[in-house]
Task: structure prediction
Amino acid sequence: MKQFEKGIDRVTVTGSPVIGKSLFLAYFFTQYCTQNPTATVIVASFTTGVMDEVLVWTHEQMEHANEQKEAMLELIQRAEAKAKDEGRPFIRLYDGLPSQLPPRSRVMCCANACHAMHDKERADPRQVTLYMPVWDSDELTGGEEVLYLHMEPPPVDFEIAEERFNTFGGIARVCLSDNEEYVKQTEARLLRTIERISNRAVMVHYALNAENTDWAEVLGGTSIYVPEEGNPLKFTTESPSTYIRHLAVERMMERGF
Result:
């Protein structure tokens, strides 16, 4: 919200794959609605740049549209026009990256890193990209409460989430997943990735968290973006957890690095 208060219209929240950007969007939605009860909140999801679902929340009601592009756009335009006429704040929350951003609308977009979007932002001072850090243990607890708000008991016990946190670090999509098979597959992929590494520089990065902005792409999400403290517009990278670093050290010793 500080970026919007500075006059920024569009904030893109990005970061490492599976870090939990969509979960952050859900958390932001819940907190924003609580703190701004008179606001209109428009939530839209995108797949490969195409809008596929829209939800409009106000203190009076919720409206929903999907599949038909015209119906979704009409719902958004009607909701924003009504909010303007009544002098109420409104915001768009995007899960995924649209092919085009609306002009002069307050938008927060949660999406994977996208060079095309970054290029647009360099030419437009009203846009900014922030890199999202991994979640800490307390934030995972809050995220779990949001994700499974109406489910009692929640499908993911906190002790299980904490155990996964020790393995994967604060990767929310894995730590809070209710799909145990997905969690196992993710761990197996991490192990295979480290097993295949033969480049000493990459291995040192894993073991020592050497700063290099290329590894997050090279290693397919097994290395994470870490925003600089006090400046989420810039980032370095590091391995996700102490567990992963220990595996890297063992691999280095086996290879004689």
